[in-house]
Amino acid sequence: MAVTDAAILKIKEMILSGQLGPGDRLPPEKELSERLGLSRSSMREAVKALEVIRVLDVRRGDGTYVTSLEPRLLLEAMSFVVDLHDDSSILELFAVRRILEPAAVALAAARVTDAAVRDLRAQIDSVGHSTDVEGLVAHDLEFHRAIVGSAGNSYLASLIESLSSNTVRARIWRGLTQENSVGRTLAEHRAIVDALERGDAELAQALTLVHISGVEQWLRDAAA
After folding, report:
1. Which end of the chain, N or C, is less packed with Cβ atoms under 10 Å?
2. Count of domains in the chain?
3. Whole-model pTM?
4. Is the dihedral of CA 206, 211, 214, 216 positive or negative?
5. Which of 49, 79, 109 is the endpoint of a domain?
């Protein structure tokens, strides 16, 4: 299990045991990391992740608090960490997406317009290294949606959209726990657009396959 996941599960244990409850303030980072036997960097990443899923509220200059959700809802929100590792259906969704989406991108290479390419580049340029994980995932969803839409097959686009929307939580988790996820995602997106602009269907298809497989492999490693 990743160190960040272990930190989250230890915070979950504190809620289960009653050491922390809704509205409570967490001990200072140094004290909490020592109590749980974790590095401060691991604790920091865990807090960041729990802030994203609305379990913790980080108040700058004041401290970090458990949100006002009742314990049952807090624990449900945290359970998705375990779900990502235990639910094999998510890996199956990625496997199907890995089959279908590269084929759709290859179709798009023959049909994509100059205006669509400009829009895709503008989407990429709107994201920076300061963009938070939720912003990155929103960009990722829109980027892939726009390319698949250029393939000219509405049924294929609807099917891929359904698959993609069901992998959002895994993509958010990857963004939180994998180093340089923003830079890596943007570089891969730029390479795909370059291939589309040249009309190179084979290259665009291969780059998309690698791009999707990277997330799938990360999830497999996390599950292991």
Report:
1. C
2. 2
3. 0.65
4. negative
5. 79
End residue of a domain, out of 23, 58, 79: 79
Whether 75 and 91 share a structural domain: no
CA distance 183 to 188: 9
Contact indicator for 17, 62 with CB cutoff of 8 Å? no
Tell me the residue type at 130: S
Same domain for 112 and 168, yes or no, is yes
* Distance of alpha carbon 2 from alpha carbon 98, whole angstroms: 25
The mean per-residue pLDDT over the stretch 159-178 comes to: 75
* H/E stretch holding 58: strand 56-59
Name the one residue in this structure whose structure tokens are 């340089």: 180
Q: Are residues 91 and 67 in the same domain?
A: no
What are the contacts of 145-151 at 24+ separation with CB within 8 A?
146/116, 146/119, 146/120, 147/104, 147/105, 147/108, 147/112, 147/120, 147/192, 147/196, 148/101, 148/104, 148/105, 148/108, 150/108, 150/111, 150/112, 150/113, 150/116, 151/104, 151/105, 151/107, 151/108, 151/111
Provide the residue range defining the domain that includes 131: 87-223
CB 105, CB 152: distance < 8 Å:
no
| Gap between the Cα atoms of 81 and 64, Å rounded | 20
**pLDDT tens, residue by residue, 36-70:** 888 888 788 778 777 766 778 888 888 888 887 66
